[in-house]
Design goal:
Urease, subunit C, domain 1; TIM Barrel
């Protein structure tokens, strides 16, 4: 009889064909076998009775920024939080200090994360000077994807956004074409600089301490116009374009109108799916996020877009700022730093949606894991199958996740006001990264347990994408 390192027994297992009652055997960092109940021997047995075994979450939009801002969190603190939230792989965005805009800086970020990470990580690059040579070098260094903003760099943060912010449409086209040549995705924070300037000028006459001012300064048309322009340009550029954090019904309509015109995908986030501007009014400046959390009608449009495949990913946009930074701008919503933590919200909130019948479990996990693996070329992740990486999570479907300042692991626990008091049906009980338990009711993983991931550029990354 084959002897394995670990067997997970008695769980309901979500495979590519649905939920089934099997045991999952692990050898090294891989899933070695899917066994009949009770079969096989192993050095360690994990009893999953009453629980569901899922592929680990792949969070494709995550900001840590360390080591520059330790008061906002470190790689250790934020990957601990990711492990507690069932995230086994995260993609770190290029807003570091300095910006991750060269192959050399990709290597620097890889080395820093490799020393400290509790979960797997990919590194985003910013396309820098937009030369094909520089962009190609970053792809060769293993960048998981590239990122740009269509907005100007925030005041005083030029070094963090150099080679990342391109408000000029000609530069956006250059970025699309340069990244298209690498075969890996270009992710875009899409808001129109010109439309923001117009709206913000009018909003400055309002009460700057009122959350309504932020919504007025960045209305949905700012997002929709930028997305429409990018999708039009991409018909010629031919990039694997990905639209970050879609927020509005207007943008959903744009995405639908451009369906089939080029290779593009889109994501949204829990704060847009489970919160509205009414919640921002209660939480104040701690709930300022760009683009803004909008209205109930926008939320319903996003759920519709998930249902019909217009949006294929749900991700955190985890972006932590310190309590002091947020509080310093409490009387000026337009100046306040934008961002909210999401690492321990993402999976529980979607499990809650499953429990409430809003979405099926297999569809939720496609949005959280399988589609990310397919789109970004991680051929061995995002599924429970023989040969796949043993990045796995056990969840108690009838357990409850309650969000309090004390329950969170992230450094941003002091600014999670959008979710204080929330109770989600479904609770992460164990997280395994490469077959090793890194969370078991508490974080037990060690610095360095996470591994660097790079896309497989020899295949089409999106062949397994589920609508």
């Amino acid at each position: 009889m084959t002897h394995y390192d670990t067997i997970i027994r008695n769980a309901d297992v979500l495979t590519e064909t649905g939920i089934t009652k099997i045991d999952v055997a692990i050898w090294g960092e891989k899933i070695a076998a899917l066994l009949p109940a009770g079969a096989g021997e192993a050095s360690a047995i994990i009893d999953g009775a009453g629980q569901t075994l899922l592929p680990g979450v792949i969070d494709i939009h995550f900001h840590i920024r360390a080591p520059a801002y330790p008061d906002r969190g470190t790689v250790e603190s934020e990957t601990k939080a990711a492990a507690a939230g069932g995230i086994t792989t995260l993609f770190e965005m290029p807003i570091s200090k300095p910006c991750c805009n060269s192959a050399e800086r990709v290597e620097m970020r890889k080395a820093h994360f490799a020393e400290h990470a509790r979960v797997n990580f990919g590194i985003f690059g910013a396309p820098g000077d937009l030369t094909p040579e520089a962009v190609s070098a970053m792809a060769d260094a293993g960048a998981i994807a590239f990122k740009i903003f269509t907005t100007e760099a925030p005041a005083g943060r030029d070094d963090e956004f150099f080679g990342l912010s391109f408000p000029d449409e000609a530069d956006q086209m250059r970025a699309l074409k340069a990244v298209a040549a690498t075969g890996i995705p270009l992710v875009v924070h899409a808001e129109s600089t010109q439309m923001i300037a117009l709206s913000e000028a009018a909003a400055r006459s309002l009460d700057l301490a009122n959350p309504d001012t932020h919504l007025a300064a960045r209305p949905a048309i700012c997002e929709a116009v930028a997305v429409a322009k990018l999708l039009t340009m991409n018909i010629e550029a031919g990039a694997k374009l990905h639209i970050a954090h879609v927020t509005s019904a207007l943008t959903v309509d744009v995405l639908r109108r451009f369906k089939g015109t080029s290779d593009f995908s889109a994501e949204t986030c829990p704060h847009y799916l489970f919160r509205t501007h009414d919640d921002v009014r209660k939480a104040g400046v701690f709930a300022k996020i760009n683009p803004p959390v909008r209205l109930q009608a926008d939320q319903e449009a996003l759920w519709s877009a998930l249902a019909d495949g217009t949006i294929q990913h749900v991700t955190t946009d985890h972006a932590a700022f310190s309590h002091a930074e947020k509080l310093a701008s409490a009387k000026d919503f337009l100046r306040a730093p934008p961002g909210s933590p999401g690492s321990e919200i993402l999976l529980p909130s979607m499990l809650d949606a499953v429990a409430k019948g809003r979405i099926s479990l297999d569809r939720a996990m496609a949005l959280l894991s399988a589609n990310a693996a397919a789109r970004f070329g991680l051929t061995n992740k995002g599924r429970i199958a023989v040969g796949a990486d043993a990045d796995l999570i056990l969840v108690d479907p009838i357990g409850v996740t309650e969000i309090t300042k004390e329950s969170l692991h992230t450094f941003a626990r002091d600014v999670a006001h959008l979710y204080y008091g929330a109770k989600f049906s479904g609770r992460v009980t164990r997280t395994l990264v490469g077959g090793k338990t890194v969370f078991d009711g508490e974080v037990v993983g060690q610095a360095g347990d996470g591994h660097f991931v790079a896309p497989d550029r020899t295949i089409r990354p999106d062949t397994r994408l589920r609508a």
